[in-house]
Design brief:
By secondary structure, the protein is of the alpha+beta class. Helices cover about 20% and strands about 35% of the residues.
Amino acid sequence: MEAYTDQSSTTDVASQAAATFCRYNDRAELEVPLISSLDTGRWVIPKGNLNAKERSFHCAEREAFEEAGVVGNAKKQPVGFYVYLKDRVRPTGVGVHLLRTRSTGQEFTERGARQLTWVHPSIAAGMVAEPQLSQLFGTIAEASPNKRHSVRSVS
């Protein structure tokens, strides 16, 4: 896996930051959230472009709130990295930061514009289109103390 930096490289790969977080449901099963993308409806994690001089972990925190209503503190170093084709054309690198959730909000910027679902990481691995993101969820699933798989959707 390549090292992630906050700046775009000299190639044409743009930099974005994303957040992932997890919880245990009422059956003590590990779950991670996926949100629907605004354009295609595919399952993704909260992510977005870095603002000028913004650190990637701050961007991850901002995107988690704007897109999923989650407030928390992101680890400074990404736990993973993936590349996808933004607008199906431009390769875009994404550093994924683990976020420690402090609270979840009822009112946030994109509420109603996206679907939110909480699933076991092994199910999330099969729902996302990006192979490297799928691998990251697979790693989380393997580290999980439980192997039961559950699906719960929240609109």
